[in-house]
């Protein structure tokens, strides 16, 4: 499964299993307020009341290891788990 881990100020606020979660909107009562969207087994920042809105430009996250953050709100979204991709390496 693929899990979105949402932390606020360094503490886990919510863990969402993206493989099971239906489409939804999540509003975090942070300062500034941040809104996330879960859609088609992906998650993204869709609104932030911070001055620059950089997090909104990060796009959808869906693969293990991806991270997006809203620094003014101290919100970080990290994808963990397995996403079905395989890494194949050859050392010479």
Mind explaining what this structure looks like?
It is a single chain. The protein has 92 residues and is mainly β. The protein is 0% helix and 47% strand. The strands form 2 sheets. A 4-stranded antiparallel β-sheet has the order 2-1-7-6, with no helix packed on it. Strands 3-4-5 form a 3-stranded antiparallel β-sheet, with no helix packed on it. The chain is globular and about 35 Å long.
Could you give the topology of this structure?
Elements (H helix, E strand, L loop, with lengths): L1 E7 L2 E7 L6 E5 L5 E6 L2 E7 L18 E4 L4 E7 L11
Antiparallel strand pairs: 1-2, 1-7, 3-4, 4-5, 6-7
Brief overview:
The protein has 92 residues and is mainly beta.
């Amino acid at each position: 499964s693929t899990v979105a881990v949402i932390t606020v100020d360094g503490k886990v606020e919510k863990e969402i299993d993206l493989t099971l979660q239906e489409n939804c909107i999540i509003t975090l009562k942070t300062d500034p307020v941040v809104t996330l969207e879960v859609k088609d087994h992906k998650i993204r920042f869709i609104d932030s009341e911070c001055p620059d809105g950089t997090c909104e430009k990060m796009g959808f996250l869906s693969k293990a290891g991806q991270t997006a953050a809203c620094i003014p709100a101290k919100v970080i979204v990290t994808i963990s788990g397995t996403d079905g991709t395989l890494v194949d390496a050859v050392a010479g």
